[in-house]
Amino acid sequence: MSGGGDLEIHGHVPVLGDEIVYWLQPKPHGCYVDCTLGLGGTARRILQACGPEAHLIAIDQDPHAIESAREALRPHFSNVSFCHGNFRDLSSILDTLGISQVDGFLFDLGISSAQLAEPDRGFSFQHEGPIDMRMDPSQSLTAGELVNTLPEEELANVIYEFGEERLSRRIARGIVRQRTLSPLRTTSELASVIQKSVPPAYRHGRLHPATRTFQALRIAVNNELAAITPALHNAVDRLVPGGRVCVISFHSLEDRLVKYTFRALSQPSQAKVKILTKKPCVASLEERKKNPRSRSAKLRVVEKISEGPAIQEKGHPQ
Fold it and tell me: Are 105 and 253 part of one and the same domain?
């Protein structure tokens, strides 16, 4: 398995594309759910591996991503149900579509490179833009509101818990000091305050000093971690025996949640799944060279085990 065959869409190369197809084992008449559609590159790989009779439910909370993916998936349009929503609502989305059983699920957690590249979305300190960071633009809360309104201790806790930033208290103190003079409006203003709040040696490390704080604010404003465990439980409940759930994570907070959830679901006394990846699958050296974003990617996979009498055939929307 190597990432060398990934299909590029709008300059974006899906991470671990070959590995997903290998582990998901797409079937000709299968029903699959991509819970984090993004630009649709991995979804297209799955559909191509399935053939013309497959059905893919494509979910994303970012309407911009869905519009981009529609173009990428145009050759497979009749096989795809596009859904604007969050995978925390997975059960209700599938109920609305009349889907009771699924052959496989894919979760590609975190932020996409396309979202990072859009200055107006405010995800990156490398682009001048508003401090927004909403994956779903229809939600009201922005990262700017958190930055400018959270009490100092609460802001420090967010930066420490979701960013694993050891200098969280110094950074929170610097942000609060600055916002008393004038509210922070742009990503570059925020990044500058963070840089000034940390010691000189910390400013020239492997990571930009704002990296972990921006990650923390993004996770907090989108409530990302809280959705993972219940969504994985819901996915496993919908799987046919032998069906699989594939999850790609990009940092330790996500990966830890996935690992512990899969471990709990595989306990001998009440096992629903067996773990297929004892250690997470990572990108090949070839893929890491071609796509730097893949370096931190970890893929974990479980398979649904048979339980009791046969389950009735999965439903498809009319």
Answer: yes
